[in-house]
UniProtKB/TrEMBL annotation:
It comes from Methylomonas rivi. This is AraC family transcriptional regulator. Residues 210-308 form the HTH araC/xylS-type domain. Pfam families: HTH_18 (PF12833). The keyword Kinase does not apply. Coiled coil: none annotated. It comes from the Bacteria.
Amino acid sequence: MNHDDAQWHAVPEHNAHDQTLPEAIGCCRSRMFTLDTGLNYIETHYTPNRHLAIFSQMPQQVPRMVLTVALSGHSRFQNNHGNPIDFKSGYSTITTFNASEGSRLYQDRQAVTQLRFSMTQAWLERYFGVGAFAAGFALNAVQVVSQHPSAATTLLAARGLLQNPLPAGAQALFRQGQAMSIVATELGHLLAAAPAQSPRLSAHEKRLAEGARDILSAEFKNPPSVAELSKRVGTNPFKLKQLFHIHFNTTPYALLLDIRMAHAHRLLVTREYPVAMVAEAVGYPYAGNFSAAFAKYFGFPPKQLSRRI
């Protein structure tokens, strides 16, 4: 399903918008509130009756940071050009992006409740200071800045946001106050951890890492070994693994798997290719091995994805 097909419908409160997917898909609803210039708050309640993929494409725009507080269930954002992002119950995930393209994946009959706080870089600098979290906006791609268990005070404030029993005239102020408390608490983890951040890479080191990534992206069907890859970009295997850990927070093998699975996902949802052909297209000579890898990666087998989404 394309995200643009799910229209936003206004609800009575002047600063809220409601997005409901077709009933045939299940009970899937989101509400968005504009709390401040540069700060949006979104409540998401999804219980699809089938495995669901919502394709999303956001063109280049002002840099944003998104804090997702997952209260129940599990979902995944499969970025077409990077690592997947899992949103797990009980965890707060902080991501940044300038533009994004990918799929939001939900499992059938699993209730998912998430609160998202979308903040522009300008809003962050207004409240946290000029240059705050600048490192998180260094790349144009979607990246995970932090993922950690949600604070107890965050969970308490989240319950207040969902219940909000106050009279209509006081709800907007209460909602903004609870949201600001959650943002301050969860982003405070980043400020506290700032001295222990990974070492910054030089421009040359970034080029080495990104060059290796580009080779894997282009040659994922028949990829070079780590030794061959490191030789081609002009370094050694140990250094290349270190660069991948610092720059991409992953390993060359894990990134290769991400690339293969993202490409397989794009082929399968077209319903034009059998599983065996997709397996061969992404570098698996045996369809059984591909199916096992796909099921472990996404949580369901490839035949189910092509049949039900």
